């Protein structure tokens, strides 16, 4: 018996090692396959800035993802400041989530090779759709770790998992407010139900103490970093609510948007729905059983992510739910001893969906708007800087001429390098600070010009952002502001009068705005 247990453990270790290597490599490969500047470089310069003593909320306006900047700073510190360590950040998360999926499935005494199979499919559909660190992915995946932890807590009744749960949910929220908030709300609803039903309070002390400790740590950390609670509250809680209110107001339910688009997720849910509905009808106390708890947790999580996708209208990234839900459906179908043809059918559908979305989002890079791009026309990222070795440079705006884009990027690099003044740079090519090894004091992470990244005129936080921008200029003695096309001068002139600047057109892609003495800035 001991020999068999030892053999199983060795077998699991070998499978886990393979899962780690595969999930790392698959993401590392696709993370190097083209870029969409505004998203792909979202945490590149900000990770460098944190590493060099500039912090979110204090030194740049931020509406999501402060945690990612700090994690990226850690990866830069450990693995070097380069593109490969940047992609490796996402690859490590892909590996952690893949192994976690494998381990949670094994807790259900599911055959180990099925656990391995579904985990492989998960790793293909999880982080590779982006390939680079991204706020929605981190928020969803920390939330998923919270879901796995909650399932493990109920299954094992160990306090350790109740301690971990608030930490994962907190990290999810610090990655992005949504979908984390939807998941947190759904978990709290479930915990109220769980508490009322079970009438066992042993886990509450772990959960509450962990939550309070996490909040206390954040307050201390913010104090050390010089980040005021008021700036965190304004930028991360209050201002994003104005964006959310607008999106809720514009929300329209369509069959395609809510049903057809997520059809394979719903299909993977059907066996779970059938089995649990049947059990509710046949077993009077089924609503008290752990199997029902797991079902409710998975349903809440699934619809939290679907709600997030429908409201944000961003590229879809939640198809990793398909192998997870199919795995649980498979497990429960096996328990009721259904015909093997049905098992074969759901496995086939899962494989088909994985292949379909792998082609669309990994091979064709749809998440980064690179579908229909000919990757044979990409250029070596090393031409821009040695830090980009291994990156196949091609973007949606220059899909037929990557060399032209690289030329103007390098021309701007040379010009900025020659200018020794204190300068501010506004661009979505958020890597110049890193490759020039220089502080460029960008006031925001993104420049989308639609009010989702910083307040525009008409927003009640417009004046707050204006003060924030002017304070950065004053504090850092900025002499000139550079703007790279397609960003426009309105990004500055909406907040500071044009009379405070002298405009210089350097090229079609680069303009500078030299500051003059004026009451608005010098007063």
Question: In brief, what are we looking at here?
Answer:
The protein is mainly alpha-helical.
Sheet-strand content, in percent, reads: under 5%
The total count of helices amounts to 21
Helix content: 55-70%
From the helix content, strand content and strand pairing, which structural class follows? Answer: mainly alpha
| Overall radius of gyration | 25 Å
Instruction: Tell me the total number of β-strands.
Output: 6
Order of helices and strands: HHHHHHHHHHHHHHHHEEHEHHEHEEH
List low-pLDDT spans: 1-7
* Gap between N and C termini: 82 Å
Main β-sheet, in a few words?
4 strands, mixed
Provide the number of structural domains: 2
How would you sum up the global shape? globular
What average pLDDT do the residues reach? 94
Q: Give the strand line-up of the largest sheet.
A: 3-4-6-5
List the helices and strands and how they pair.
Layout: H1 2-31, H2 37-40, H3 44-51, H4 66-79, H5 83-106, H6 112-125, H7 135-156, H8 159-175, H9 177-198, H10 202-225, H11 229-250, H12 255-258, H13 263-282, H14 290-312, H15 321-335, H16 340-363, E1 379-380, E2 392-393, H17 402-418, E3 423-426, H18 432-435, H19 462-475, E4 480-484, H20 490-493, E5 501-505, E6 510-515, H21 519-522
């Amino acid at each position: 018996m001991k020999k068999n247990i030892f053999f199983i453990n060795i077998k699991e270790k070998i499978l886990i090692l393979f899962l780690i290597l595969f999930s790392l490599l698959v993401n590392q490969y696709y993370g190097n396959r083209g870029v969409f500047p505004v998203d792909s470089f979202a945490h590149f310069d900000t990770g460098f800035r944190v590493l060099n003593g500039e912090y979110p909320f204090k030194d740049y306006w931020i509406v999501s993802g402060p945690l990612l900047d700090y994690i990226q700073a850690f990866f830069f510190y450990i693995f070097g400041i380069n593109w490969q360590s940047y992609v490796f950040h996402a690859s490590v998360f892909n590996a952690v989530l893949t192994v976690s999926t494998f381990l949670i499935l094994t807790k259900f005494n599911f055959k180990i090779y099925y656990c391995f199979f579904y985990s492989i499919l998960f790793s293909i559909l999880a982080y590779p759709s982006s390939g680079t660190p991204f706020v929605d992915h981190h928020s969803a995946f920390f939330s998923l770790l919270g879901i796995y932890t909650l399932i493990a807590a109920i299954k094992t009744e160990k306090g350790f998992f109740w301690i971990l749960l608030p930490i994962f949910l907190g990290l999810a929220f610090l990655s992005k407010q949504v979908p984390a908030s939807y998941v947190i709300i759904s978990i709290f609803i479930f915990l109220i139900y769980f508490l009322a039903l079970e009438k066992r309070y042993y886990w509450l002390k772990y959960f509450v103490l962990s939550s309070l400790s996490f909040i206390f740590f954040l307050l201390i950390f913010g104090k050390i970093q010089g980040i005021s609670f008021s700036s965190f509250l304004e930028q991360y809680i209050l201002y994003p609510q104005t964006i959310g209110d607008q999106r809720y107001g514009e929300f329209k339910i369509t069959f395609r948007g809510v049903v057809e688009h997520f059809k394979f997720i719903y299909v993977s849910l059907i066996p779970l729905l059938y089995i649990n509905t049947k059990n509710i009808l046949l077993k009077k106390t089924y609503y008290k059983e752990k199997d029902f708890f797991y079902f409710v947790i998975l349903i809440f999580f699934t619809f939290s992510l679907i709600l997030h996708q429908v409201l944000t209208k961003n590229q879809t990234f939640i198809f990793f739910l398909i192998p997870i839900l199919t795995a649980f459906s498979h497990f429960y179908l096996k328990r009721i001893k259904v015909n093997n043809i049905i098992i074969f059918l759901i496995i086939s559908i899962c494989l088909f969906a994985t292949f379909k979305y792998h082609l669309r989002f990994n091979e064709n890079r749809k998440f980064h708007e690179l579908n229909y791009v000919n990757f044979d026309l990409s250029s070596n990222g090393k031409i821009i800087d040695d830090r980009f070795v291994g990156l196949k440079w091609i973007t949606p705006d220059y899909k037929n001429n990557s060399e032209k884009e690289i030329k103007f990027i390098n021309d701007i690099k040379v010009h900025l390098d020659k200018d020794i003044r204190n300068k501010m740079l506004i661009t979505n090519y958020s890597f110049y600070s890193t490759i020039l090894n220089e502080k460029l004091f960008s006031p925001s992470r993104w420049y989308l010009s639609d009010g989702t990244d910083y307040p525009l005129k008409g927003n009640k936080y417009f004046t707050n952002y204006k003060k924030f921008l002017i304070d950065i200029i004053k504090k850092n003695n900025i002499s000139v502001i550079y703007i790279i096309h397609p960003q426009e001068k309105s990004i500055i002139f909406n907040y500071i009068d044009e009379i405070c600047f002298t405009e210089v057109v350097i090229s079609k892609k680069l303009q500078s705005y030299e500051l003059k003495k004026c009451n608005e800035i010098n007063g």
